[in-house]
Write a structure and sequence with these properties.
Blueprint: H1 8-12, H2 27-34, H3 42-57, H4 61-64, H5 69-72, E1 73-74, E2 79-82, E3 85-90, E4 93-97, E5 106-109, H6 112-128, H7 144-158, H8 167-180, H9 184-191, H10 196-203, H11 208-218
Antiparallel strand pairs: 1-2, 2-5, 3-4
Helix pairs in contact: 2-7, 3-6, 3-8, 9-10
Length: 242
């Protein structure tokens, strides 16, 4: 409309993107944390399941706290289906809402160890009462602050750096990349990213060995023989002496 003569957005220019800083536990650090739990104790068993589930699935914090045994967990098929995200105002006031994005609606496969741990935890819960939420010790869903305290407490006991609860999702991605060199598209699906660029911008630096692996695979792949006699008539534009 020419009310403003100068485009202020053009004057500002492109805002540079900062590289995402990812805090995560390595496999060895995770193992140290696991060694601090005494699962004979009911609350420690509950805490162990929380840390294990996040590390081994890559679920977002509110996705895992929204999981229910009969609706989202299939131990026979070995799958977890993400349908909701938990909105928790306080211990007695919460609701299931939509996931962060449409891409977050997904079904992920879980390993046999996780199946066994979840199955054992389900039986432990039943000894007290019938519980609907997977991550619960008293029938109520688990809040972020509880998870944060568990992580901080056991990181200190293990003698490693504490991370945020969402850092366990990053830990899962790091684990898959460093241990199994998993394709970024699979990482994208498991973590529920809407755009592959999100996955690549966050985790591309965790693929340090791929560059050398490519170079190693290229070695010797092209065989050749050079000409015994000169085939061109071009002598070049420079004069030189041998």
């Amino acid at each position: 409309m020419s009310i403003i003569k100068n485009n202020r957005a053009k004057q500002v220019g492109t805002v540079p993107k900062e590289k995402v800083s990812v805090e995560f536990w390595t496999k060895e650090e995770f193992k140290k944390v696991l060694s601090t739990f005494k699962i004979d104790d009911y609350y420690e068993h509950y805490s162990f399941v929380i840390v294990w589930l996040y590390f081994m699935t890559g679920l977002r914090v509110n996705e895992a706290t929204a999981l229910r045994w009969h609706e989202e967990i299939d131990l026979e098929k070995g799958t977890i289906t993400v349908n909701h995200s938990l909105r928790l105002k306080n211990k007695s006031n919460g609701s299931l809402g939509p996931t962060k994005t449409k891409a977050a609606l997904r079904t992920i496969a879980i390993d046999s160890d996780t199946i066994a741990i979840l199955s054992e935890w389900q039986q432990r819960q039943k000894e007290l009462t019938q519980m609907n939420f997977v991550l619960s010790y008293d029938s109520s869903p688990t809040g972020k602050s509880t998870i944060a305290r568990i992580i901080k407490r056991h990181a200190k006991l293990a003698g490693i750096k504490p991370i945020q609860a969402k850092g366990l999702q990053h830990s899962h991605a790091s684990f898959l990349i460093n241990e199994y060199n998993v394709n970024p598209l699979i990482i994208k699906h498991r973590l529920g990213h809407e755009d592959i660029n999100t996955t690549l911008s966050t985790y591309s630096h965790l693929y340090p060995n791929v560059n050398f692996e490519i170079a190693s695979n290229m070695s010797g792949s092209i065989t050749y023989k050079t000409a015994k006699e000169k085939l061109t008539k071009f002598n070049g534009n420079q004069s030189y002496k041998i």
